[in-house]
Amino acid sequence: MSEQKKTVVIGSGAFGTALAAVFAHEGEDAVTLLGRNAGLIETMRETRRHEAVLSGVELPAALDFTIDPDILGQADTVVLAVPAQAQRAAALYYAPYLNREAVIVSAAKGIERASGRLITDVLNETLPHHHAGALSGPGFAIDLARGKPIAMALAFRSREIARETAEILSGRTFRIYASGDPVGVQIGGALKNVLAIACGIVEGADYGESARAALISRGLAEMSRLAVAMGGEAETVRGLSGLGDLVLTGSSRQSRNFRYGVALAEGNFDSVNAALVEGVYSASVASELASDHGVQMPISSAVARVLDGKLDIAQALDELMTRPITTE
């Protein structure tokens, strides 16, 4: 019988709680959710619920809860399930408590705005003694927590570490595919948020399903170009973390990014909290990365300028539709 592994998920928001729940459902390994809100953690421990973000979901009996970071000293795998812009601060805060052998997994889908760096690069800098990987792909928190069948990609520089970690975290309803391309997985995860905002704009402006299909396909081409320019693989972006996640978040109001795009088109800005929309942070960074690498990304650039107030939606559409004709 193999030795029981210990996993700690940091972050008691919807996605972090859902990941902890799906990991703990298997009951084979010890899983703990580490948060900083003592009242919330105690409520979840007593009620096995997190009604604010996962309404009606009963959390598994095998899942433990704590606010004590000392638990990290026992963890083989640590999943950082906090927003992309908070990953650096969380890594620095928890670094002294980590087991030196722990593998770190980022569950954020974004690019650090301040530095323009991918999150695994940020973690490699802040936690140089640990292997850092990225988990990304199509999966809403509520579906994860309810045990719906979901597949995602997990990328490390080392495919062996990716496979080992994928085996630890995968379960009967959550299948993880190992990848050795953290660049491609993260570019897909970050840019799909930007493109989901664009899809929401298409929805809110009533441009039609055909326009959204064109946007998804051309957006995928943009993802691929940037991933390759940054050292990733185009094939990765055509997988779960790119195309798969874009199809999901570009067509559902469960996605904050999609809802924010709808709100932009309808002028209903109070309906979505922009601070929680990862694509808002990633759009301008993606546009800058495209410029730095000499990559054409007209859709992402248009979204960035709309968000910055430099372009209105009608102007953005006109600009995209009147670009010089090229081959596909």
3D architecture notes:
This protein is an alpha/beta fold and 328 residues long. The protein contains 14 helices and eight strands. The protein has helices at residues 14-25, 38-47, 87-94, 119-126, 141-145, 159-169, 182-204, 209-229, 234-237, 240-249, 256-266, 278-292, 298-307, 313-321, and strands spanning 6-10, 30-34, 63-66, 77-80, 103-106, 132-136, 150-155, 174-179. The chain has an eight-stranded mixed sheet, sandwiched between helices. α3 (87-94) links the parallel β4 (77-80) and β5. The longest helix is centred in the middle third of the chain and has 23 residues, at 182-204. The relative contact order is 0.11. The model has no long low-confidence stretch (mean pLDDT 93).
Strand order of the largest sheet: 3-2-1-4-5-6-7-8
Mean pLDDT across every amino acid position: 93
Instruction: Tell me the number of strands.
Output: 8
Number of H/I helices:
14
Question: What shape does the CA trace take?
Answer: globular
Report how far apart the termini are. 54 Å
Biggest sheet: strands, sense, closure? 8 strands, mixed
Q: How large, in whole angstroms, is the Cα Rg?
A: 19 Å
Q: Return the string of H and E elements.
A: EHEHEEHEHEHEHEHHHHHHHH
Helix content: 40-55%
Domain Glycerol-3-phosphate dehydrogenase NAD-dependent N-terminal: 8-160
Subcellular location: Cytoplasm
Protein name: Glycerol-3-phosphate dehydrogenase [NAD(P)+]
Main location: cytoplasm
